[in-house]
Amino acid sequence: MSTPTDKHSFGTHGLWIWHGGLTPDQAARVEQLGYGTIWLGGSPEDLAPARTLLEATDRIRVATGITNIWNTDPLAIAREFADLDKDFPGRFYLGVGVGHREATQEYASPYESMVDYLDKLDEGGLPVERRVLAALGPKMLRLSADRALGAHPYLTPPAHTEYAREILGADAFLAPEHKIVLESDPETARSIGRPPVDTPYLHLRNYVANLKRLGWSDDDIADGGSDALIDALVAHGTGEQIRDQVDAHLAAGADHVAIQVLGVEDVTDVLEQLPAG
Scanning 82, 224, 256, 265, which has its CA 20 to 30 A from the CA of 123? Predict the structure, then answer.
């Protein structure tokens, strides 16, 4: 029987959206459409955005994607987690990440800093199985299997999901994010998908290093990204075509895919056009 900490309780598909980008009514609609989890991006400094969406819904999981270790106090986050879990048992999960060097003045020794943050979450009583780590490379992926429920990679094609699953092993949770544009014309779709991929991610060392690890070249990454790279990172087409591209992560070993919708004001309009299930 599924439990609140069972990795399958996330459902196979979720929504990734910047925190503050979803109204309570829209969150309720995402739940009605059958999505299992809402991931809140943009490094919120506390868990108040999660509470707003939990209050507006009945069953859906809410997770941070991610809480940044540099702008939050782990003991304060652990206290907020305890309050959320009391009010909404089993429905909130903490996604934690180190962000990127270019955005954080304090950035140093990311692996060791993450270990220290996790130690403090342990001290604060936040259960290991109720947190996931933003992980791209092998060290952080192994840490996510050892010190968390699993990993929440961002800006990754299915090839990374296959790579991550090999490192994580069979039991750890794996929930990559994937961007989509509901548009069948490739040039139009790329004109929507390329800017948010290029700025900032194709100029950040950790994301560039991960893409090169997967075999993408400097030419692919330069000048806003090659068409092939953008197509690998941003699914486009009809609802059915997008669902097939997103589900390539599941075939590669993911338990769940967090879908980020680009190019629209109300993401529920797009989610309604994707096949159910």
Answer: 256
How far, in Å, CA of 240 to CA of 229, rounded?
A: 21
Determine the Cα–Cα distance for residues 236 and 193; give it in Å rounded to an integer.
Answer: 9
| pLDDT tens digits for range 129-183 | 999 999 999 999 999 999 999 999 999 999 999 999 999 999 999 999 999 999 9
Confidence of residue 275 (pLDDT cuts 50, 70, 90): confident
HEC profile of 209-221: HHHHHCCCCHHHH
pLDDT of 110 above 50:
yes
Taking CA atoms, 194 is separated from 181, 226, 236, in Å, by 11, 9, 12
Q: Which residues pair with 235 in a beta bridge?
A: 180
Angle at CA 100, nearest 5°, toward 94 and 102? 150
Helices (H), 94-183: 110-123, 138-147, 158-168
Paired sense of beta strands 13-18 and 92-97, if any: unpaired
Q: Is the pLDDT of residue 1 over 90?
A: no
Distance CA 72, CA 45 (A): 6
Q: CA-to-CA distance for 134 and 148, rounded, in angstroms?
A: 11
**b/e 24-40 (16+ beta carbons within 10 angstroms → b):** eebbbbbbeeebbbbbb
